[in-house]
Amino acid sequence: MTDITQELDELIYSTDGRRVSFTLDEAIYPRDAVYGAAYLFVDRAFVFLTRPADDRIEVRLKPKEESDKAGLEKLAGEYANELLNQVVRVRVGESTAQIREYYMAKAFFADSNQTSIDALLAELDAEELEEDPLEISVPWEDPSNG
After folding, report:
1. I need a surface site. Which of 35, 41, 71, 130 has the fewest CB within 10 A?
2. Is the CA virtual torsion 96, 100, 105, 106 positive or negative?
């Protein structure tokens, strides 16, 4: 079959009528973003990943259902959008890694005597142990069980 190469804005893809493929530069599209986008397509397409050259990943998507040219173009566009979404997620994750590490370290190394949850639980336990000198009933207690 004839291999048709088209440009989807800046992302170039090719199709042979049965599948669509992309060759991606890892400098622009990190490997984790490519894997994340590919993973989200496994329910509707067979996904094949190869490495044609250093720092390049080829992604081939073959729809699980019969598809025409318009369907393949739609699949290519949806993959391109998801790839962009995954790139943003990876970059935000990288840029906020230090903040997450700080909060995780603070949570793991917090002084257990100063945790507010422990203080609240101790306060609740103390209240439960106190007797009610006025014998005021509590709405959630059943008087027939007392």
Report:
1. 130
2. positive
Q: Is the pTM of this model over 0.70?
A: no
Reported as a single tens digit per residue, the pLDDT across 23-59 is: 999 999 999 999 999 999 999 999 999 999 999 999 9
Task: Spell out the residues 6+ positions from residue 99 whose beta carbon is closer than 8 angstroms to its own.
Answer: none
Q: 72 phi and psi, to 5 degrees?
A: -70, -40
In this structure, are residues 29 and 90 in contact, taking their beta carbons and an 8 Å threshold?
A: no
User: What is the DSSP track for the chain?
Assistant: ---EEEEETTEEEEE-SS-EEEEEETTTS-HHHHHHHHHTTTTTEEEEEE-SSTTEEEEEEEESS---HHHHHHHHHHHHHHHHHHHHHHHHHHHTHHHHHHHHHHHHT--GGG-HHHHHHHHHHHHHHS--TT-PPPTTS-GGG-
The pLDDT mean for the chain works out to 81
Cβ atoms of 85 and 24 closer than 8 Å: no
- 4-95 maps to CATH 3.30.70.60: yes
